[in-house]
Automatic annotation (TrEMBL):
This is NISCH protein. Its main location: cytoplasm. One of its GO terms (molecular function) is kinesin binding. The lineage of its organism: Eukaryota, Metazoa, Chordata, Craniata, Vertebrata. It comes from Nyctibius bracteatus (Rufous potoo). Residues 241-347 form the Nischarin C-terminal PH domain. It is found in: Cytoplasm.
Length: 348
């Protein structure tokens, strides 16, 4: 260890997404290749001498206790734990994190010294992994609220690769076998179905970690929610969600010296008649077992919605992935004018 193949694979994975800015400390990590990267892991991050680095992923992450703060992280998967090497700007973003992060060493007088927080989730503490709709993100759940992290990969390939690597590493864990199942009687077997909890597809790994995937009902619930936002103009039966993708809304910052822009995370949902932008809570749902009350905000909050027939043109940028799209809509004062004329002219 490590093999040439593993060194090459981890080097290829060590690339920051071009549209996201990171601190100097993480840029240093992204510049490491091959053996230097493995030595950095063992010298600065690894907690046990004999653990092996198996996978590396650059992703935005959200913590359960700070669901509004999305931060860039280098996610390192070893045979013992998952390490989240966080952007050092994260420490200063939210005053409520003082109890969550140890700040003793965060203010260094020496400006040339760059510090990163490293959040560690041991594989033995891992309880479940929830995969988001269309593999756009995944949530890792441990035994308490401090141990719930969502990785917003915004990429089904990266999500799939990480889940496969995690399953492979979990297979190496020596865990005590599950207790024998208790024989259920008729009433407990069939009487506990109407709990109101949606049954998702669950895959229980040999390490007893649950991998939970969304089912068709989740899309149905989303379609119902979208139909509500459309003021009942569309029949729910004919409403199809064509696209669900985690994207960024670009807000240009005016008055700055350079042409800078801020990226606001949004969920884009396209139906056959409308285009919606939602603010989605990716880390609080489904509710963890220890949650005593629902989160303060809904899972989906409508940020913007426009009708496709008001779309005038779509402008495409020339840069490579990620592609920038600009949707230009007609600003019609009376939005229902065309609809009423059509109905009058053509009858029912």
């Amino acid at each position: 260890y490590p093999s040439e193949f593993l060194l090459q694979k981890i080097t290829e994975e060590n690339q920051i997404p071009v549209h996201l800015h990171v601190s100097v400390s993480l840029q240093y990590v992204a510049g490491l290749k091959g053996n230097a990267l493995v030595e950095f892991f063992h010298g600065n991050i690894a907690e046990v001498e004999n653990e092996e680095l198996r996978h590396l992923l650059w992703s935005s992450v959200l913590f359960y206790k700070t669901p509004n703060v999305e931060v860039m992280a280098c996610v390192l998967l070893s045979t013992k734990a998952i390490y989240f090497l966080l952007d050092d700007s994260f420490i200063h973003t939210d005053e409520h994190q003082s109890d969550f992060w140890n700040k003793e060493n965060s203010d260094c007088e020496n400006r040339s010294f760059h510090l990163s927080c490293c959040f560690v989730l041991k594989l033995n503490d891992l309880q479940s992994v929830n995969v988001g709709l269309f593999d756009q993100y995944f949530r890792i759940t441990g035994h308490s609220a401090d141990h719930i992290v969502t990785c917003l990969t915004r990429d089904s390939y990266n999500t799939h690769t990480f889940i496969q690597q995690l399953m492979a590493v979990l297979s190496l864990l020596a865990r005590t076998p599950s207790p024998e199942p208790v024989d259920k009687d008729f009433y407990s077997e069939f009487g506990n179905k109407n709990t109101g909890k949606m049954e998702n597809y669950e895959l229980i790994h040999s390490s007893r970690v649950k991998f939970i995937y969304p089912n068709e009902e989740e899309i149905g619930d989303l379609a119902f929610l979208v139909a509500e936002k459309m003021d009942g103009l569309t029949d729910l039966q004919s409403l199809n969600i064509l696209l669900y993708v985690l994207a960024f809304q670009v807000n240009h910052v005016e008055g700055s010296a350079q042409n800078t822009s801020s990226l606001q995370p949004k969920t884009l949902i396209l139906t056959s008649s409308d285009l919606f932008l939602f603010d989605e809570d990716y880390v609080s749902y489904p509710l963890p077992e220890f949650a005593k009350e629902p989160p303060k905000r809904d899972k989906y909050q409508l940020a913007d919605g426009r009708r496709i027939r008001d779309l005038d043109r779509v402008l495409m940028g020339y840069q490579t992935y990620p592609q920038a799209l600009t949707f230009v809509f007609d600003d019609v004062q009376n939005q229902d004018l065309m609809q009423n004329l059509t109905l009058d002219h053509f009858g029912e």
